[in-house]
Amino acid sequence: MARKPITVEMLARVEGEGGLRLVIDGDRVREVELRIFEPPRFFEAFLRGRSFMEAPDITARICGICPVAYQMSAVHAMEDALGVTITPEIRELRRLLYCGEWIESHVLHMYMLHAPDFLGYEGAVEMAKDYPDVVRDGLALKKLGNEILRVLGGREIHPINVRVGGFYRAPSKRELRELRDGLARGRDASLATVKLVAGFDFPDCERDYEFVSVGGGGEYPFNEGHVLSNKGLDITPQHYEAHFEEFHVRRSNALHSRHIGHGAYLTGPLARYSLNYQHLSPLAKQAAADGGLGPTCNNPFRSIVIRAVEVVYAFDEALRIVDAYETPDRSFVDTPPRAGIGCAATEAPRGMLYHRYRLDADGSILDAKIVPPTSQNQPSIEDDLREFAAGWLDETDDRLRHLCEQAVRNHDPCISCATHFLKLDVVRG
Amino acid sequence: MAEPPRRLVLCVGNPDRGDDGAGRLVAALLRGRVPADVVVAECDGGAAGVIEAFSGVDCVFVIDAAVSGASAGTIHRVDCAAGEALPAGRAASSHGLGVAEAIALARMLGCLPRQCVVYAIEGARFDVGADVSPAVADAAREVAEGVLLSCPSVIASWPPAGGVRPALGETAAPCHCEAAWPKQSCS
After folding, report:
1. pLDDT tens across A144-193, in order?
2. How far apart are CA A417 and CA A63, in angstroms?
3. Which of B97, B105, B185 sits opposite A63 (nearest CB)?
4. Are strands B75-79 and B59-66 parallel, antiparallel or unpaired?
5. More exposed terminus of chain B, fewer Cβ within 10 Å: N or C?
6. Pairwise CB contact (< 8 Å): B96 & A62
């Protein structure tokens, strides 16, 4: 039977450069290829020979949206290698910094990139004509997240205040208190966001994912915990590479990942929420219930609701930390160099981010491995398209193209980070 | 007595990406030379940051790099407040929202400054770590001098009658801002 191609040359409203190709044979989706042609960025090689103290600032440059995630995974991995334990006060400040990043990243994706899919617009600019208040709300919420980064990180993008062992400078109690009114307004506004996005129409698309997330630390995960899955995995980050492997596919400059012996898995909001629901704050749990969510969610199109709930949680958690804050005597613990290997997994807005470093006795980096969430999610995104597109074959090519792009955007992929991602070709016959 | 207009020169770009640093170079050339009421700010060109920078501003010059196929150093002038639009193609900034989208969004949201002129300097090379091209550096100096000359005229002509025409000449070729802002990337 003849085959007909449908192509999305360049996926819009995702970060980085990639495309998508579908080959449809009659009533069957024959091939799905997520192509990532963003050039490789070689950060792991850049790190070799540099001091362990430079890793947070170098790895932050991997991403302008989620630099904190790279910094956090880097510092925790270094501290693991050095055998250093941070203080509870530093731990709380790191959670606060992560709250800021989740807010600004999730809000950007929900309001500017994903909402237009559900409301029927090409993008945020077109949506702003009919929904100016929605766009204004999104910009205002994002600013509040950025403000946390500015105060605690020194600047909004690529923070400069994070160091191995803690922070170069701890904020004063007054500086954090000045965030409080904005955070309280943000928390109220984030509840309205849950109501807004929960009212969108969602296709009835569920999949039996293997969810993988940091968890098990008795809290909704940012920085610390085991690597958990809903299929029974429970390991420390130090054992990550014994259970997960990267592999190269010709169509992607980003390495794919699989759970050895199991295959594709999903990291990100669906996984994090489904594995850690019990640790959400009461307010976030109530918001989830009001948004129509149960304790787990297998519909990736509803990821926008989970992001909204996580924003409620991030504001709630930020307020808790700000209210309890006392300026610590020291903003960091000492980190004398030594030879060693250190690993860490933390939760970037779009999923689990694993780092591993091998250090020489003088603290210089001998070897580095960085596994970003989008890289891990590529096989699952392709599986989503393979399964969901089969139900959309009666749609016009334009509509099919749009639905496929939306399915990719469900996971807020960050291609630049992963290249270490989009364009859509559909071949139909 | 009427409030004086709040004026901003917003210099956009990445100084570590060759000619993408043109806007930042203009900022360096303007520091200490602009009237006290003129704010010179720098940013990476993300839409949220640009719209935030517009807050409370009556008059803004936005300086950025451009790629249109014109020769390096060509200065494109776009009077956004007069209705001219930047070509909003596929911005290379994080998650696809850059200066062109920011200006279009600001217009939709009713928060575009009453005067908004973009000077986009045609770049030739955007490699990581590259220097600014000599032709782009010359154009940056011309834009900086043009902004300095325009600042008093903006005040003098405030409130504008039919739009302000700063000193720099217009160019025939439209700029294509979709390729002009190779910013930091994002996971």
Report:
1. 999 999 999 998 888 999 999 999 999 999 999 999 999 999 999 999 99
2. 6
3. B185
4. unpaired
5. N
6. no
- Find the helix or strand (DSSP H, E) in which A147 lies: helix A132-153
Are A221 and A317 in contact, with CB atoms under 8 Å apart? no
Residue A218 structure tokens: 């008795």
Q: Distance between CA A160 and CA A318 in Å, rounded? A: 20
Which residues make beta-bridge pairs with B115?
B59
Block residue for tokens 């790895």: A59
Which member of A13, A63, A351 has the closest CB to residue B186? A63
Asked if A4 and A24 touch (Cβ cutoff 8 Å), the reply is yes
pLDDT (tens digit, 9 = 90+) per residue, A308-356? 999 999 999 999 999 999 999 999 999 999 999 999 999 999 999 999 9
d(CA A152, CA A169): 9
Mutation site, B178, B181, B184, B186, interface A, largest A CB count within 10 A: B186
Contact A346, A333 (CB under 8 A): no
Cis ω for the linkage preceding B159 (within 30 of 0)? yes
Backbone angles phi, psi at A158, to 5 degrees: 50, 65
Residue A240 pLDDT grade (very low, low, confident, very high; cuts 50, 70, 90): very high
CA-wise closest residue to A81 among A351, A369, A348: A369
Q: How much of chain B exceeds pLDDT 70, in percent?
A: 73
**Torsion A295-A300-A305-A308 (CA) sign:** positive
Helix residue spans in A218-361 (DSSP H): 240-243, 269-276, 282-290, 303-324
User: pLDDT, tens digit, for every residue of B47-85?
Assistant: 888 998 998 899 999 999 988 888 999 999 999 888 787
List of chain A residues whose C-beta atoms are within 8 Å of the C-beta of residue B44: 64, 157
User: Is the C-alpha dihedral spanning A329, A330, A331, A332 positive or negative?
Assistant: negative
